[in-house]
């Protein structure tokens, strides 16, 4: 972890004491906004508790509460005797934008099973290549996996993967570990773009999910990147009658 010294506190940290907000919340908001705005980058050290105490004119306990809550939210890592650091991007982004279907199902105390129907290397057509920022004809990995909850199919995952970001993708046992889990390990997430829409399943999707072609689905399309390079593009198809998409976000 980098131990780069933080820049000096901006004047707004010294003059923003007005208003009814609790003192700890002012410290927390200042640090959160600084992280979001890039004042402190992932791995960089935040101002010390002593610096924050002096800047805001508050107690050490107040500053400690602000840092503790940011740590609980996954934005800050604290190292005893060293200081507080901005958490790495993949820890933040994976919490906010990408959910592993195995973890979703396990959180409900249900059984997750996965069956791999396609695992292949192919030459990307123009559309596939564009999703991953590659040239047409480039080699990509392709997988189609059905996820089941207590034996009932709830998701058909059709995924393209950039081999440069995950060269060992084809060697994984995706009946044991999900592609999402594996890819977050080998290519930490820095950005995710997605769309959510209602649509009818394709013929293969309907067959794999055991549903009629006329039944609507919830379709999530997502492209994720690491360090400015597209890692994977995935289409997740869920029978609308069997799946509820939910989550939370805190800015």
From TrEMBL:
Composition-biased stretches (Low complexity): 1-15
Residues making up the signal peptide according to the UniProt record: none
Domain HTH gntR-type residue range list: 21-89
Region span, Disordered: 1-22
Molecular function terms from GO: DNA binding; DNA-binding transcription factor activity
Entries under CDD domains matching the protein: WHTH_GntR
Keywords linked to the UniProt accession: DNA-binding, Transcription, Transcription regulation
Alphabetized PROSITE patterns for the sequence: HTH_GNTR
GO terms for biological process, alphabetical: L-histidine metabolic process; negative regulation of DNA-templated transcription
The name this protein goes by in its record: Histidine utilization repressor
Organism for this UniProt entry: Roseateles chitinivorans
GN (gene name): hutC
